[in-house]
Amino acid sequence: MSLKEQLFADLKTAMKEKDSVRKDTVQLIRSGILQIEKDNKVELEDDAIIDVITKQLKSRKDSLPDYEKSGRTDLIEKLNQEIDILLGYLPEQLSEAEIQTIVEEAVKESGASSIKDMGKVMAVITPKVKGRADNKIVGSFVKKMLQGNQ
């Protein structure tokens, strides 16, 4: 079953069960997919759908600190539920140890020696971790490693 079919099935289930958070989250994913498909006149495959989900996940994670500052526990709880739902559609996330290993290999592969080479390293890493790790976390590992090399 493709990811698009899975989303449709989950939407129907959420509507039957009256799970408004899941329904709203899946509808947002589906509308993001539809928007890209209409704009570019293409049919998205699972890899591109994972990109859409990753962007929505990043958006929600970026909003979390603002809600925490304002003390909106109701919105924080809803946002955490949405994050959990989005993570359910992504491939299994990499552990910090796995990210560290990938970063070490990428630094060797790219021949990077200073922080100026961060772009080269990220270009090697990004396809390997796509949808499986947050680029902020990966970037911090790369930065630490390249600063340690100086």
Automatic annotation (TrEMBL):
Picking any one GO molecular function of the record gives:
carbon-nitrogen ligase activity, with glutamine as amido-N-donor
InterPro entries under this entry?
Asn/Gln_tRNA_amidoTrase-B-like, GatB_Yqey_C_2, YqeY/Aim41, YqeY/Aim41_N
Which domain of life, per UniProt? Bacteria
Q: What is this protein called?
A: Yqey-like protein
